[in-house]
Each structure stands twice: as structure tokens, then as C-alpha cells.
Amino acid sequence: MRKTNLFKGSIHTILLKLLESNDKMYGYEITQKVKEVTRGDLKITEGALYPALHKLEAEGLVDVEVQQVDGRLRKYYKLTEKGQKETVSKLAELEKYLETMQTLLNPKFS
């Protein structure tokens, strides 16, 4: 699938949902999970991922935990309590958007 602005505009919601479902994740793991779940239709590049994660961190929606793994430092991202609430809000907003788009694409005229 071609890269679109729809995905770009949804990256924060995608990240929040992934972290809600997986407790904590590191960057490469996130990119691979997105690719796996979408069967390759969506690929998040490092150039899009890390700025988005840093923004979520700056907003207090995710915490970063650094662990040493195989002699290297690895950053794990985890939702904060504020991030959990924001995830619920973002998912509700996205669901409403999808319903509206479905209505526009398949209008039912009386």
C-alpha cells in the first residue's frame, strides 16, 4: 500500500494503541509489530517513529525505561496513566471519524 497522509495523521493513535495492548515496547519492536499486524501494508520508518515517540513523551503520555540487553542499552516505551486516558479518547475520536466516513461513502437516502 502506498504511504498516505492518513497514516501520518494517525501515528500517535497507532502508537498509543500498540502500547496499550503490549505494556511496553522498544522502537524496532513497534515497527515490526505494525508491519506484522497490517501484513506489510503499513511500515513506520524510524524517521517517523522516534519523533512521534518523543512528542508523546514530552506530552507526558509515555514513559521511557532504559534497560541493558545483550550489552546494549534499549529504550522501552510504556503508557503513563495520562497516556491510558488519552488512548481511550483518541480511539473514540477515530471510531467516530470512521463512522462519519462510512456514512459519507455509503449514504442512505430516505
From TrEMBL:
Family annotation (Pfam families): PadR (PF03551)
Domain Transcription regulator PadR N-terminal: 15-86
Protein name, per record: PadR family transcriptional regulator
UniProt source species: Neptunitalea chrysea
